[in-house]
Design goal:
- With 225 residues, the protein is an all-beta fold.
- The chain has one domain.
- The strands form 5 sheets. A 4-stranded antiparallel β-sheet has the order 1-2-3-4, with no helix packed on it.
């Protein structure tokens, strides 16, 4: 589960999670790396378990929603897709698109936190937070935090929620923005921007956790794409 205080945003889908509940973590990845490929789980000595085909995503996360343990990806940076594993190795995975975006920028980053204080974990993704419904079958609802979408990767962010503010890092842009966003009284409105001292100072700024503290450093040039 991605909880409050955990930053999120990655270069490609490649993580380890226990997909079949046997206590052993398998590797989940897109075969082919950053390009289109099969989304698979690979376990020791096992044939790859195909989750989906023709997937394009830079990010994937282990997540629990309403007690359902599964996997989230951001296909083409334009949706939040939740997969639930089959009952046995090799069985079909079931997925549901929790929300689809219609913006000019690839959305990136994912953090789970209760934004509106109703006791249900919501999602931060890119420019937005997405409010959890009362039950899994009901639709999620989208609210904008900011309107940064002037470039195809403007909203490909790395995120960190400290319980009161969201740290938002434009991780794929030269002289990327680094901004604290403070929720207004009505969290459904655009949030209040408080630029970080390193905003606009670093190429492809990257978030890291060191000893429980957030660090922001310049990234490699290849990240700016």
């Amino acid at each position: 589960m991605i909880g409050a205080g955990v930053l999120a945003g990655m270069d490609r889908c490649d993580l380890r999670m226990d997909v079949d509940g046997d206590g052993v973590k398998e590797r989940v990845m897109v075969q082919g790396g950053r390009e289109e490929g099969r989304l698979v789980a690979v376990g020791p000595g096992r044939k790859p378990w195909v989750i989906d085909r023709h997937v394009v995503t830079r990010e994937c996360y282990e997540l629990e929603i309403f007690g359902r343990r599964g996997l989230v990806i951001l296909p083409w940076g334009m949706a939040v897709r939740f997969y639930e594993p089959g009952r046995e190795w090799g069985a079909e995975w079931i997925y549901q698109d929790l929300y689809s975006f219609y913006t000019a920028s690839w959305q990136g980053g994912l953090v789970q936190a209760d934004v509106d204080g109703d006791g249900r974990p919501d999602l931060f993704v890119g420019n937005y937070w997405i409010r959890s419904p009362e039950s899994f079958e009901l639709p999620w609802r989208l609210f904008a935090i900011n309107a940064y979408h002037e470039h195809p990767v403007s909203a490909t962010a790395q995120l960190h929620w400290d319980g009161q503010r969201l740290l938002w890092v434009e991780s794929r842009r030269p002289r990327g923005r680094v901004v604290w966003f403070r929720p207004p009284e009505d969290v459904r409105q655009l949030w209040i921007a408080e630029p970080h001292e390193k905003s606009g100072q670093l190429d492809c700024p990257q978030l890291r956790m060191r000893g429980g503290r957030v660090e922001i450093r310049a990234g490699d040039r290849w990240r700016c794409r």
